[in-house]
Amino acid sequence: MAADLILYTNPHSRGRVARWAMEEVGEPYDVVVLDYETTMKGPDYLAINPMGKVPALVHRGLVVTECAAICAYLADSFPDRGLGPTAAERADYFRWLFFAAGPAEAAITNRYAKFEPDAEQGRMFGYGSFDRMAEVLADAVATRPYIAGDRFTLADVYVGAQIGWGVQFGTLPRHDSFVAYWDRLKDRPAHRRAASLDDELAAKAKAAG
What we know:
Elements lengths: L4 E5 L5 H11 L3 E5 L9 H4 L9 E4 L2 E4 L1 H11 L12 H23 L6 H4 L7 H13 L11 H16 L6 H10 L3 H20 L1
Parallel strand pairs: 1-2
Antiparallel strand pairs: 1-3, 3-4
Helix pairs in contact: 1-3, 1-7, 1-9, 3-7, 4-6, 4-7, 6-8, 7-8
């Protein structure tokens, strides 16, 4: 019998973030691995996500795309897992989840593409400047163990993935607070399981190719 949750992904993509979130939730799920050049741009998948990007999550026929949305959706859909915010955590949970998905994501990808807005252009960009974004994010994770307070939530999956990638591959400055925050997350059992599953898929694809 098919699972209620289906994750469409590729092991060399942001789908790794969604996989981590799925493993934190612990519900059974099926995985459909898509190829960038063929199935990801095919009509069957474009009917699910017209952007032709992964990940996408289908839950009993309902489609959720974008990693931050998938994290928030899973926390809301499975409240008994305790991965969403308490009333006291809600403001920071949503603030920093969407800061990471908006200003931080845009600043990081623009810098990778070698685009740096000048001061005038920065007024039009949600992140203003890369350096300012990085400073604000570093301060946010320096003042508490997790992004919404003293407790892990699924917002930490998305924020943690951004920071973990940045620490490992140099897309963010190596602030002490980034390193310490990522150290609190990287050895979580769910993260290790997710990484192992995706690494195994990547190895199989390489061997087959």
